[in-house]
Amino acid sequence: MARAVLPLNNTKIEKSKPKETEYNLSDGEGLNLRIKPSGSKIWLFNYVSPITKKRTNLKIGKYPEISLADARLKRAEYRTLLAKGIDPQAQKKEQEQVEEKKLENQFYSIAEKWKEKKATEIEPLTLKKNWRRLEIYVFPTLGKMPVIDILPSVVIEMLEPLNKQGKGDTLKRIIRLINEILNYAVNYGLLPFNPCLNVNAVFNFGKNENNLEHISLKYF
């Protein structure tokens, strides 16, 4: 008969001391707190993989950054996955890959790649000015957005203040830059199509500003 495991409590965890070799404190149902000789304490979930049929440990995180209550919530989450035949570690890796892909496909990340390409095509000063325009008018809104989420309505709302100020020439430049970056994403298979190609049709550009954009293009 298996020996019953007494659940952990914060007092027991706090009083646990490092030894010459690492050891585990068990909370039951696969949740263990590993005490390292260095004194660090790491939550692990021990389980049998439904895929490999082998026993393995999945790191949850360090204590006290991950509290006992939070570690138990993770255990419950992982046990639910196991009940469905899903390996928690495999799903965690898949989620990490999805998050990495999102970062790679953010507008700013793609703009940086576009910038590298443009550096071989246009004058450095022109590129510097264009990048500064993006920093002022575009990145604060679109920088962290995945390109797949950038719709005409988002771009139009972002640029409406420029439109109201009558800065038609600046508006044209910004729209052109946004479309160049989105077209770059399309050409490299990061976006199925550019939905913002015709956003300029929404705006009344008025008279040409003769390149006087009324913005500071100072560089620090």
TrEMBL record:
Gene Ontology MF, one: DNA binding
Keywords: DNA integration, DNA-binding
SUPFAM superfamilies given in the database record: DNA breaking-rejoining enzymes
Domain Phage integrase central: 107-197
UniProt key word DNA-binding: yes
Residue ranges of coiled coil: none
Pfam families associated with the record: Arm-DNA-bind_3, Phage_int_M
GO biological process: DNA integration
InterPro entries xrefs: DNA_brk_join_enz (IPR011010), Integrase_DNA-bd_sf (IPR038488), Integrase_DNA_bind_dom (IPR025166), Integrase_recombinase_N (IPR010998), Phage_int_M (IPR053876), Phage_Integrase (IPR050808)
Domain Integrase DNA-binding: 8-95
Similarity remark: Belongs to the 'phage' integrase family.
Protein name according to UniProt: Uncharacterized protein
Lineage: Bacteria, Pseudomonadati, Pseudomonadota, Gammaproteobacteria, Pasteurellales
